[in-house]
Amino acid sequence: MRDYLKHYINGEWVESTGSETMEVINPATEEVIGHISAGTKEDLDRAVKAARAAFPSFSQTTKEYRIELLEKIAEEYAKRKDELIEIITEELGSPRKISKNVHYNMGYAHFKQAAKELKDFSFTEKRGKTTIVKDSIGVSGLITPWNFPTNQTVTKIASAFAAGSTVVLKPASMTPFAAMLLAEIFEAAGLPKGVFNLVNGSGSVIGNGISEHPDIDFVSFTGSDGVGQTVMEKAAKTIKKVALELGGKSPVVVLEDADMNKAAKAALSNIAMNTGQVCSAGTRVLVPRKLKEQFEEAVLNNLKKFPVGDPQGEVFTGPLVSQKQWDTVQGYIEKGISEGATLLTGGTGKPEGLDKGYFAKPTVFTDVKNDMVIAQEEIFGPVSCVIYYDTLDEAIEIANDTEFGLSGYVVGEDSEALQKVALGIRAGQITVNNAPQDFGAPFGGFKKSGIGREWGLYGIEEYLEPKAIMGLEK
Questions:
Q1: Which residue among 92, 228, 305, 367 is least packed, with the fewest CB closer than 10 Å?
Q2: What is the C-alpha separation between 21 and 99, in angstroms, rounded?
Q3: Looking at 91, 117, 245, 296, which residue is catalytic?
Q4: How do residues 133-164 score in pLDDT, each as one tens digit?
């Protein structure tokens, strides 16, 4: 049982001013594995006050100091590797190899990347006779999601530290323990008091409180577009900057010359990894109509490569995060059937032999029309929609016929066609033929997928404000 009933404020673990607690449930067993305190407005005020007090000195630290600090944090993070993997597997239901190879590794990579970016970064530049100084934005309020307890949390924190910004973090209440361990890591790395503060609690109290707090200068939020809208509305009261990384309904465009096994694996991995609980998941798969039979056969042949089961075992896909999320996904599957899409594999209910836990069947619909609900709304589960097209121009048109624009994927061989699709999709990040992840590349979306960018230099820039100084040089 993990009971973290204190908040981390001004370099200390402190009691909450409230008495309410929140349960944390293991989605693979449906058992309570711990509790956190439900923070109050007073707890948040204390955290903001600590961050505000620490800002003047931390924002004036040297670039070299922050590089050393980020490197030290990365070292301490690596020392806690096994604990982080165990925690993420328990609280998220992520299979151990995914917890290690994706969740743990992404967190480590963001600390290292931020330090790397700082080495060649200048906070001052000359534009003619004008001096441009990039100042730290101030106190940053970070609201992070449950689906990536390290990746989405660390990319924000690492960028903030690199820019000299102090932080108040509200981690997701369903997966809070990895963030609590981060606080211990920062303490071990010698982070100055007040630079990092953590307050657990509900979105309605702590999340909304961060968004509208007059002493928070910047809010970075990752989550649904609906909540993102609320964050913007509340932040507008104090005219603060907001960065949003929201939902997606990303296309996977399969070209005519694509290897069907590779295409099928791309389609399945997008809904199997993290149980499809990925904002950038390619959940609309666009396939040439003439290759319909070959593609569907390849999907069925490759299903066994993505086993579902106990995350402590050798599986690729674990459970959904909660009963609520399981119910939501089941509703979308039922909707797809009622809309007339063809159920190629999967469907409602739990996989055979997995009666305990929030497990769902990896589900692939074919003959999907792009105006169907399942093709337009983010399901956030292991559900794929296969849409057939006749021309490449039609494929690009379908790919862009969505309110979202976070990511896009292209599978094929013809270089001209790959380039045409990659340039034609209006989304923040395009992956061609399963290219490896670049942690220095900007991550963020067009349209309802968000505002601003994270990762690497672009992420650091979000925490800086440019100041123009004219007249120093005659």
A1: 305
A2: 27
A3: 245
A4: 999 999 999 999 999 999 999 999 999 999 99
